[in-house]
Design brief:
9-stranded mixed β-sheet, alpha+beta, 282 residues
Length: 282
Amino acid sequence: MMLQFDQEQGGTYQDGLYDPEATAPRVNIATALTAASREHYREHGWLSVEGLLQADELAAAKAAIDDLIEGRVPVFSGVSYEKGYKDSIETMSPAERYDAVRKLYDFVPHEERLATIALGDRIGAICRHLLERDVRLFQDMALLKPPRGGREKPWHQDHAFFDYPLGTRIVGVWIAVDEATIANGCMQVLDGGHRLGPIHHFRRRDWQICDTDMAGRKSVAFPLRPGDGMFFDGLLPHGTPSNNSAQRRRALQFHYMDQAAQPTDQAERLALFGGEGAGATC
């Protein structure tokens, strides 16, 4: 099987690009289903929820990620390695190779344990409540930041990667598999930034919002315990800094949209978010 490598090289970034002024409060699942939480989501573009995964689901998710990376799931090929390891990947030990993985994707058709989480009633109910419409899953990923070197995902809007009309309601769900902290690269968002509409993206370290548009802007950080999660609007600017800590940071990320949404062509997306985004992936 041919190995796949992430298309973005990454690189260094200046201090001050990730400068949280607050950490997001979490609500329980029952509170997530109230009108007050839906209004919070509309105004701020996010909702942080504790206990999204139960202990047995979390253990199953960890085991499933290991099995996907280590080749124990038949047919599955959605493993993307860091581009910088392209010349050395074949000589790496299993542990080194594990830490070279950037992301896993399209695993729901192959991995029942993760499919049960992504398609389960708990997440679906909150998504339907926040969007006030039926939803469908259209993207599944696991995002990995190994200790002392897990790469940044620069500031961006997820809608900039999807060929759907601007008015399409999209909600991302980011679930901590390990403890997510400011030190190991937890999610940070520009509070209320979804109301700015499309922001021009450029090819720099990634397909991203330009650093000069974000430097000095105060963010909200989402430190999460294992099994906690956050829901966020497809236009909400967000990013995750590098993991320079000794603690591993793995997360699941799913995207859901209006059940009735219909795709458009790439030209419409590029006209809104920037012409350098052809072929860009989350």
